[in-house]
Amino acid sequence: MPTTPVIELRGVSRRYDSASDGPPALQDASLTVRAGEAVAILGPSGSGKSTLLNLIAGLDRPDAGTVTVDGVRVSGLGEAAAARFRRAKIGMVFQFFHLLDDLTVTDNVTLPAQLAGMARGTAHRRAAELLEALGIDRHARAHPGRLSGGERQRVAVARALMNRPPLLLADEPTGALDSASGNDVSALLRELHADGQTVVLVTHDEALAQACTTRTIHLADGRIAADTTNSLAEAAR
Ligand code: ADP
Ligand code: MG
Questions:
Q1: What angle do CA 158, 196, 40 make, to 5 degrees?
Q2: Boundaries of each ABC transporter domain copy (predicted)?
């Protein structure tokens, strides 16, 4: 049973300046995610999912409350320290991949290692291992623009895992994929969880949450409305 907290939110609120009337984007959110958990943040559009994810990734700061990730008080970091924190602690996967088409697949995947100062040879060996594990090693020298959506998302996952982050964040990672590729990415997230990776998946898709996470945090109007156990967790018992 995993015990170490990877994410701890305590009384976190965020209100955007441009939206001074109405409820805050996130209100008094408290939450603990432990090492090895795969958690979905589920809610309709506008419920505060991206706000929550940005606060966990140190891309934004709360107006109240604290955010701690792998022992780092993220909510107190300045911009440069937050960037270092992300490099060391967070792997991120997005709906639209955010790959650099001018670079080869390998160079996309090794980029986070380069930024972290890893030796080039070490980074290339790790990239080759990741591409092989994800079944896309034959595309190592291709440019991402030549690949299918599903293949591109695998490259994005390899890049996210490059620096062995304690936390993988995925924001609607199947949102731009056809259903077969979406199922592949869903299976991949499930495998990463089985290997012990802590995963937080942001989605509005309940079936996806059920397919690859063990716990769902339901957001509604900026509040945590429920925290439930998924069938994947039941099946593992
Ligand atoms: P979700 O990701 O669940 O769709 P968001 O976290 O993006 O929700 O948004 C939560 C609420 O905050 C929404 O009402 C949205 O319109 C508002 N919001 C999000 N980002 C901003 C911003 N930069 N400025 C003003 N309001 C914002
Ligand atoms: Mg969003």
A1: 80
A2: 7-235
